[in-house]
Amino acid sequence: MEDDRALSPIPNALVMFNPPLNFPGGKILDGEGNNIAEKIAPTRFLNAKAPPAILFYGTKDGMKAQGSEYVAKCKELGVRAEMYLAEDEPHGFYNRSPWVEVTVNKADIFLQSLGFLKGPSQVKVPADAQPLQSLGAGNASTKKSQVEAVNEEKEKLNKTLKDAAAKGDIKTVLALIQQGADVQWRDPKDNGKTALTRSILNGKFDVVKVLLENGADINYPDGSNRYPVYFGRNHRRARLPS
Length: 242
Known about the structure:
By secondary structure, this protein is α/β, with parallel strands linked by helices. The chain has helices at 64-77, 99-113, 146-167, 170-178, 195-201, 205-213, 228-233, and strands at 14-17, 53-58, 81-86, 133-137.
């Protein structure tokens, strides 16, 4: 049976128990004997569209540093990531009680905050169980809904794209578009101007070309119903399509 290619392979959330996330200098061989360690390391491919995640490690787990690195990078990108530690516990600590109950309960709460589970957790945590230590979280508060967190992340990405376009930073503009930034986003704090309009006004026509090639609309109005093509025709250096 073939996979249904209409289904996205991107998860909506990640619950990870002492996961290996980065393998600098490591060795993982594929079926042909090639070392693919760096090619499959999740931390190396994180971007602002990564799903929210919760991670569990023991403080004596040698992989704990990989989790800390993952969470730190998520924070830089504005992605929600929470990491919890079991004091003086090794790799695989969650396979025995009371850590089974403690970690599953924490994962239940995490998934409730995203709207994937409802109602109080049904996990009975032993009364004498030690609490997990929180390493800290990424951008979004657990009190925010998943939709709110995603919208904030998208707006941050779109604002960064507009700022890069205004500066003529083609490399950053291309990278942000690949990450999913919206070239048509209108900045509510700049009278609805888009990255295209701002790059035209600043005379960054190399960026203008890139934006047009990636779906920016020359006839998309700002908050005053003025179009990018209007600003272009009033700029002495502009050569824009009508």
